């Protein structure tokens, strides 16, 4: 018999489930997907979740022993009760996602955490942060999210929402954020916000891919836009390291691939904190995960349960 | 017999030692002090430390059982080797403070942590954060420092420098910081920096006490200065809560007493993060510690060793 986890990843645009092996691999042929998203009602979302859970469960082979279900969800969440309120999914506010899945599979334990925590656990397990016990995982995409592993264990916090790196402010920026704050990293450095800033400077494209292409072509506005966002990322990494003494930050997500310059600008901003070796020591590296990362991380809630902290 | 800790607090202007009881009280008549500070050479600083340690040790009564020594030091520190490099004490860079004390008292365990961590442990033990397990302690004085208790245990980080809340940036501020960064909380909201900003607006005093007096008298520049610093404190508390899901922040230090308006402005800034209940839930309260707080916290490293994390 080989031990497997059923992993579920619920995000703002899609929900996916798959079987994840004990060595951190999505088992081929077991991955299923449905759209989720802003315009769906709760019944449609629930059906999408149950569809992919049933499909992944039906993919169990005779040699598989199902240890449990791990769920990563877009936040905010309420950890103790297993409720989710994804910012971009208005139909779900305090929705009992964990109980929905538990009723479907009553015989195995079901664990739910914020998706950013799952991704960080995956980086720590099989990604770019292997060998480090003080890690921040980050996703820079349509939003900016993340999670923490401190002292070798995930930090969820009393409500389960620790790791909201997109809502740490960056000095000198005051862009309005949907959370109600100003100067939050997500309001500066997400793909859409970076494009929006570039457009104020004359850029005529409308997507992160177009901005990346313009950057490759040497367009000075695209270069300035990516440097601005990279710099904000670095400032916030420096702030987070001041607070929790990180060793390494692994950054993934669609917009993180726009240019290596994004990473260089982030590292330059960290290096300015020259008086504090404990800050400048932090490494900023690209994610070591494939596009399976979120599912591997949800599976890690089961396979690496000893690394899941309070 | 009653169990006592020998507590040592090493700061930028003074070094103190005292005996601390198992219920978190500085035993009367056991507290001793010497100046430290920027102009002293290393030999003078070492003598000052040994003087107060010997004096406190000589104050042990026949009924006292000495469990160990707890040291809180201004940071940065290097936890594993027990080295200190206090920013305002240039004579000590990677100075082996823990070993100095261990040689003096070879028969008991000696523990060293950053002073902000000690203060937070004291707030958690006998101060304003009793009953909460996700706490930030803060000192707002000539500098801004702090520490974290997460999940009921202190977080030191791999180098021992977690809790440097003064070097989280505040959105919209870009004041130059001695650490090399810009917009760090310490560069905005410390007592001296608040006074310096007020002077750019026409304030003619030169101390935090004068600024507090002007505020009480209704001076609009003093009011604006204290609101500006309180707002920056609140912004950084919101950022820190986004990252580690704090329940309560206890703020002490000389400048924190300048006006209740400082706390109100901080709370107003947190409340603006209206979409995130896990952020707006954080309480901001005055420290519950007397001026014995740093020593009680150093003593807590011994008496509350089960609460001291990695």
Structure summary:
Helices cover 36% and strands 21% of the residues of chain A. Chain A has 310 residues and is of the alpha/beta class.
Detailed description of the structure:
Chains A, B: Keywords: Kinase, Transferase. Chains A, B: InterPro entries: ATPase_NBD, ROK, ROK_cs. Chains A, B: It is an enzyme of class 2 (transferase). Two copies of one chain form a homodimer. Chain A is built from ten helices and twelve strands. Chain A folds into two domains: 2-114, Nucleotidyltransferase, domain 5; 128-286, Nucleotidyltransferase, domain 5 (2-Layer Sandwich). Helices cover 36% and strands 21% of the residues of chain A. Chain A is an alpha/beta fold. Chains A and B meet through α7 and α9 of A and α7 and α9 of B.
